[in-house]
Amino acid sequence: MCGIVGYTGNREAAPILISGLKKLEYRGYDSAGVAVFHEGEIKIAKSHGKIANLDALTSGGASLPGFVGVGHTRWATHGAPNDVNAHPHLSDDGRFAVVHNGIIENYSALRDELIASGYEFKSDTDTEVISNLLEYCYDGDAKSTVMKATARLKGSYALGVICRNDETGITGRIFAMREAAPLILGLGVGENYFASDVTALVEHTKNIIYLDDGEFAELTPQKITVYGVTGEKIDKPVSHIMWDVKAAERGGYEHFMIKEIMEEPAAVKATIDPRIKDGRVVFEDFSFTSERMAKIGRIIITACGSASYAGEAGREMIEALCRIPVTVELASELRYRSPIIDESTLVIVVSQSGETADTIAALKESKARGAETIAIVNIVGSSIAKLADHVIYTWAGPEIAVATTKGYATQTAVFALLSIYFAELCGKIDGERYKKLVSELEKMPSKIQRAIDINHHIPYLSKLYADKKDVFFIGRGFDFAVCREGALKLKEISYIHAEAYAAGELKHGTIALIENGSLVVALACCRELYDKTASNVEEVKARGAKVLAVVHEDNKRAVSTSDDFILVPETEPLFTPIAEIIPLQLFAYYVAKENGCDIDKPKNLAKSVTVE
Ligand code: F6R
Fold this sequence. Notes:
This protein is an alpha/beta fold. The protein is 34% helix and 23% strand.
């Protein structure tokens, strides 16, 4: 989704903005632009396609001198991805330039009103409405003008605004506003910043202010002032980011995705270790009692995409250990279907970014219906982290590749922790089993490392199967939960059509699609069920399919007729999904690489889906 950067200080703004935009590339975009204020004028450069085009157009920013500016990467919502629709958008008289992430829902009515007042529009975007509205509302003071204009906007927006000299004579001001879209402020020395997320700022400052919805910030080189909805000044706390600059760089790897897969043992360790103290599972943010647990009639896990598939693995763990009914609901569905949720429902939302619009809406809906909510989130200070009653952070560090890997692994690790924790409160686990599960969970980082180490042949397998047009992932129980994530990984980065099917469902329709040479990836790590899956393997083999079996490393005989094998280390059965996904991530990665795909930035996808 769109990325925003703003700078005011004593250095040339354009190179800083362009370098910030490069850091935001991972969010997904189709065009980019910058606006810089210099000698009484706002100058704009923008270009569709890669930031490299903008870089070339401005000679790395050198052709746009000036110390104050805003920049943008656009992921098209209103209007085609081209130079005209790229941001920043200038008002008719060139006084205001605006960058925007989100959707202005009343843009059509505002546009009609502005056209009736003589304004002309050059683009098809909803954002140009904002720049012209600013001009329309101009009262001589950029700050009060911005407040007046934004009061008329409906929808979601993170906005960055610059104004050429106004009547106040204050120079170097930029403005930032947030309403249901991510935006943070960065404090420097003699310079200040705003951006969509910390990756754009971490090389300049680690001191961050998280804006809340409805808040408005005025930035000058010397200070940042934040105002509330009614214009009152707000004292905002400054947070210190722990991320190292290197964490958001490729560090010698060819792609972020492979770097992030290699980081999974450490990410899962960082997520588990602080929550196991003296052999007991503890959460820093909350503690439930047995009485509270007894009042929970059911658990709903809600999320989008991979996060919902982590939820599917979580359901297997919680139901098995706690015997509480758990359902997994896609956030985009739950928000609109008048869900049956009340005080007896515990809702767990899962989100790497913490900014997914549908997940935020599902969380709000659940709270409004009286549920207590827990968020499993990676980004500190994100919207979901702020909204939920309790937060469990996945300490995965920055995840830059669009396809999540360590995000998913750490989310499933949190579900493992939660399931042990809840099981004790429910009185469903004895001391010995508790101890065993905790000790097995502590071994997961090394099991994940082993899952990487024993699959050196995956690049070779990828060459064999990279030309497939359709791939079917089948499995039962937790294997089926992992199938869904395995199929999503393959389709999103290699563009090969891949679907996950519960193996037992094959005969109810899908088997009609199996033909000579079809690839079936059969997950058979769920020991109680693998002989059933093995029968399904025979059925697809009989119809000419090639079978790639995913089995425990000591158990190739589980589906002995398979053509090839991917191996998974033996673990506590309930925690298998945390290790089982790793080779499937590697398989998707190497197939995409074999096919020359843009692995870290797959077409049409955005890292953080901040619009519906
Ligand atoms: C797939 C992927 C997406 C996200 C989904 C939710 O690799 O990354 O399916 O899982 O968009 O995003 P978050 O977790 O940020 O809410």
